Amino acid sequence: MRARLKELWKDDKGAALALVGGMMLVLLGMAAFGSDLGWFYLNASRVQRSADAAALAGVVWMPADQPQAFATALDIANRNGYDDTLATVSVTPAIVVGELNQLKVTVQAVVPTFFLKALGFSSVTITRSSIAEYIPPLKLGSPSNKFGNDPSCYTTNPTDCAGNFWANIHGRNTDTRMGDAYSSYCFDGSGSTNSCPVNPSYRNTGYLYGVIPGGNSFTLETLDMNFYNRLGGVANGDYHRTGDHDNFCSGGGCVGPTVVVSIYQPDPTPLDVSDNTLVCSETYSPLPQFNPDDDPPFNPALWNYWDTVCGGSINTSSSPNGIWVVQIRNVSSNVNTSGLNRYSIRSNTGNLFALGDFSIYNNASGTTTAFYLAEVPDYYAGKTFVIELYDPGESAANGTLQVVDPSGAVFKGGQCRIYTRDEITNNWTQTATIPAGVNCQELVTPGEYNGQWLKFEMDLPPTYSCATCWWKMNYAYTSAVNDTTTWRAYMLGNPIHLVPLG
User: How far apart are CA 20 and CA 35, in angstroms?
Assistant: First the structure.
């Protein structure tokens, strides 16, 4: 028996070598696969980052300029190493159905292998997609081609009075408490002087307006852009005209602010014109006040003070659906620049609206008056809408500030939170939480928010929908409200961000 076993053992000589050799092939294959797998993960990460970057860069042009959005996405992918003109690369920008402010970018790349070539796999195809969303600045203050009233509306065309306000910008050395939160240099309550402490909200960039021409040109006009200083005892308390308020400095030579109106080409950041291409600008120097009684009774046929900015039509063929930015700012900086300048602007075509924030003078003589605030399209359903008002609601009697939704009713479709603060440097203090089903409004006593901020924060329900999506601020008062105030409105959240793939 032992002899037989020895014979069998002799027959197994060399079996270990075969087993080790076979295992070496398996181990080498696994090592090869592991090395290539790491290479695949690295490239998948690169492809994903490229798709993310391309989507984020291109989405800021949606939906106004889809060709530019696609071109930007392709350019950014190329800069990240994925050139769509190569046979091994495909970059595909696409719209997202039902989501106007989203852009989807798919990047596909053929990646060569290393060790897997020995197993017949010379390359693999990696595909990654990304969707980015852009929350653009809301259209503020005007659903039409005009921001501010037209004097002719009071006797000939009441529909032009729908705004119930004049646009406003205060001279630099004017007390912020007069109602302009941003263009007034003087700290709240410090007076209108040449040596006042600085308002922490002050900026020298003025106010911005957007024009979407919807065609290859538009013409911009201004009404009473020159500041008319009260001179020689000539006052102007006439609702038919814009009612510039004289400056507050004493002594001679107080002529008022000089204003510059500039037009810029569209770009992805309409709230920042520092990198925009300037089309043209025009300067409006202050003038003496004319006598309101020069043409009694008021005759709109004699009122022809609309001025064409830059002398004529602006060519917009390069971006007919983009936001062409209009900047209105003060340029002088001494005591002679105090004063309250009221005006209107209009475009002969398309839509004109405020961007980011705006200052207005409520010249409506009625007691209950609704002012256009912001357009909030229904793709913002489920998000939080914020309104901030500076120095609002001043009147001789109590009144109620009501947030009116597109249905025409006071908003109660979601929770509404109310906050206050003194200055931009102070934290907000929450004063009320109004549950869904209860009107979002605030009772205001005389002088309660003089020189202060009031904020409404509203949670839009997931079912929020609208055809005409303009919200309004309703002044429900028992006495007339003629007040200068500053408003801003926006959606909470990072304006440019990635969203999960559907």
Answer: 22
Q: Give the whole-angstrom CA distance, residue 442 versus residue 116.
A: 70
**Please, how many CA atoms are within 13 Å of residue 45, restricted to the half-sphere of its CB?**
6
Q: What distance in Å separates the CA atoms of residue 333 and residue 361, rounded to the nearest whole number?
A: 23
The DSSP bridge partners found for residue 342 are 168
| Cβ-contact 240, 296 below 8 angstroms | no
What is residue 319's DSSP assignment?
-
pLDDT band at 39 (very low <50, low <70, confident <90, very high): confident
Contact 63, 101 (CB under 8 A): yes
Output b/e per residue, 456-483; b: 16+ Cβ within 10 A.
Answer: bbbbbeeebebeebbbbbbbbbeebbeb
Q: Considering the entire predicted model, what is its pTM?
A: 0.82
- Residue matched to tokens 């695949």: 40
C-alpha pair distances (Å), 373 with each of 147, 200, 212: 12, 25, 18
Q: How big is the chain, counted in residues?
A: 502
Q: Which of 138-152, 194-208, 242-256, 392-406 has the lowest mean pLDDT?
A: 242-256
Q: 324 near 313, Cβ under 8 Å?
A: no
When pLDDT is cut at 50, 70 and 90, the band that residue 409 belongs to is very high
